[in-house]
């Protein structure tokens, strides 16, 4: 996984967790859903990069 893509995935995951937590704390379902979506986007980006690394010739 390239360092840039890995960092971007971790950032998206962290931002999503924060938004999800804040949305839940203040009762804002829209913010909570946005956080879940962003966290999922980060998870998918990380999975994509892991798959690319797995098939990359060494």
Tell me what you see in this structure:
The protein is mostly helical. It contains two helices and no strands. Helix 1 packs antiparallel against helix 2. The longest helix is centred in the last third of the chain and has 27 residues, at 29-55. The radius of gyration is 14 Å and the shape is elongated.
Which tags fit this structure?
about 60 residues; mainly alpha
Layout: helices, strands, pairs:
Layout: H1 3-26, H2 29-55
Helix pairs in contact: 1-2
Briefly say what this structure is.
With about 60 residues, this protein is an all-alpha fold.
Individual helix count? 2
Portion in beta strands: under 5%
Strand and helix order: HH
Mean pLDDT: 92
Distance between the termini: 13 Å
Number of strands: 0
In this structure, how is the largest beta sheet organized?
none
Secondary-structure content class: mainly alpha
- Overall morphology: elongated
Give the uncertain stretches in residue-range form: none
Helical residue percent?
A: over 70%
Rg calculated over all Cα atoms: 14 Å
């Amino acid at each position: 996984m390239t360092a840039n893509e890995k960092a971007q995935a971790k950032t998206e995951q962290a931002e999503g967790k924060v938004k999800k937590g804040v949305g839940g704390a203040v009762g804002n379902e829209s913010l909570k859903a946005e956080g879940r979506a962003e966290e999922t986007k980060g998870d998918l980006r990380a999975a994509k990069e892991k798959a690319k690394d797995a098939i990359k010739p060494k």
